[in-house]
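Supplementary Note 2. Why include the ligand at all?

Several targets in our set were suspected to adopt different conformations when bound, so apo predictions alone were not considered sufficient. For every target with a known small-molecule partner we therefore ran a joint prediction. The input for FE2/S2 (inorganic) cluster is given below.
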Amino acid sequence: MPGGEDIIGSHAACSPHRPVGVNMRRAKREFVRVCTISDVPDEGAISVVVDDLPIAIVRSQGRLYAIEDVCSHENVALSEGDVEDGTIECWLHGSRFDLATGRAIGPPATRPVPVYPIKVEDDDVYVAVPRRVRT
Ligand code: FES
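The joint prediction is reproduced in token form.
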């Protein structure tokens, strides 16, 4: 987007992996640079870590998405799965997740995976995740 920022995606339901002792009511979001746009393959994903939170940066059909890089069924990386038509498939048991909403659209996973706001400025990709405030 010329001269501005392009915000893509939104965040979904709370994480099943929320650490004990984190007060999410006080959480704030800040965009953090995670990679360049050329780092992300077409119809593919890379894994980055922001504040100890693994995030899959995914490109599908020319759009970028940020989704937590942990399947909601078991603790495996979604970024290692196949990307197709706005979805990512978990490599272990084959559940598919909608990249825009995080919704599980195929069993055995039934719970969504959190998705996060993502934007591109020039060639840099930024993701906003809750800043965790320990209490
Ligand atoms: S671990 Fe992802 S579907 Fe089972």
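The two ends are 40 Å apart (CA to CA). DSSP finds no helices and eleven strands in the chain. Comparable summaries for the other entries are listed in the accompanying table.
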